[in-house]
Amino acid sequence: MLHTSRAIVLRTIKYKDSTIIAQMYTATDGRASFAVRIPRTARTRLRSSLVVPLAMLEVDWKDARGKGLAHVVSARPYYIYTGLEYSPVKMAVAMFISEMLTASLRAGVADERLYQFLDTSLRWLDVTEGSCANYHIVFLLHLTEYLGFRPNTDDYTPGSSFNLRDGRFVPLATDDCLPAADSAYIPQLMRMRYATAERIHFSRDQRARILDCIIRYYGLHIPAFPQLKSPAVLAALFD
């Protein structure tokens, strides 16, 4: 049976000389892995460009019928990045987002709201001409709403600490809590949108520390969360 869906590429893995495995988040089926054949022809370069991380595609595939991975019959971009691939900073942010989504999204039932959130967020990163220094932090905090562990900010009071394990604010800090100074940013960032995120001016050390806390939060709520490589690159980008 032939299926068609919009899909966002999370990552690709070389399988054979002419085949890659592409992990994608699809609008109709959620996260899924596909075998994509890249023939050795003059068109190979074009075909390969369709399955780069965070590519936004319309994909046709056939069921595996219990015999391995589903096979992509054809793929074509439904959105072509115009600014992201020409900006080293945006590319670094995109690679981090790709790594985080690969670590966070699990196979299962599709979520149309989540797909729309990802689509809209990536388009914004592509076209913005403003600062994206805080984009990835705001992205991760808003993503928690779709993953089921959105921080509860209802109990926030000045001086309280955010408990990473419980996802809420508490009056007395424990080992699983952020310091009160860092905790105070969480409600503020949760109210931010990408276009307004630059209003918060972090130092490089502050931004890296906040990001590390958010990654720790993900690690406590997502089983088998891996060690990430890309945050070190981001830490060197923004002053």
What do these coordinates show?
- The chain is an alpha+beta fold.
- The chain has two domains: 2-79, Nucleic acid-binding proteins (OB fold (Dihydrolipoamide Acetyltransferase, E2P), Beta Barrel); 84-235, Recombination protein O, C-terminal domain (de novo design (two linked rop proteins)).
- The protein has eight helices and seven strands.
- The chain has helices spanning 44-49, 88-104, 112-127, 135-147, 180-183, 185-191, 204-221, 231-235; strands at 2-16, 19-26, 30-37, 56-62, 70-79, 161-163, 168-170.
- A five-stranded mixed barrel has the order 1-2-3-5-4. The chain has a two-stranded antiparallel ribbon with strand order 6-7.
- Strand 2 (19-26) and strand 3 (30-37) form a beta hairpin.
- The radius of gyration is 19 Å and the shape is globular.
- The chain starts with a strand and ends with a helix.
- The mean pLDDT is 88.
Properties at a glance:
single chain, 239 residues, alpha+beta, OB fold (Dihydrolipoamide Acetyltransferase, E2P), de novo design (two linked rop proteins), 2 domains, five-stranded mixed beta barrel, two-stranded antiparallel ribbon, 8 helices, 7 strands, 36% helix
Question: What would you report as the Rg, rounded to the nearest angstrom?
Answer: 19 Å
Query: β content, as a range?
Result: 15-25%
What global shape is seen?
globular
β-strand number: 7
The secondary-structure element order is: EEEHEEHHHEEHHHH
The fourth-level CATH homologous superfamily of the largest domain is: Recombination protein O, C-terminal domain
Strand order of the largest sheet: 1-2-3-5-4
Please summarize the sheet with the most strands. Answer: 5 strands, mixed, barrel
Secondary structure: helix percent: 25-40%
What is the number of helices?
8
Report the structural category.
alpha+beta
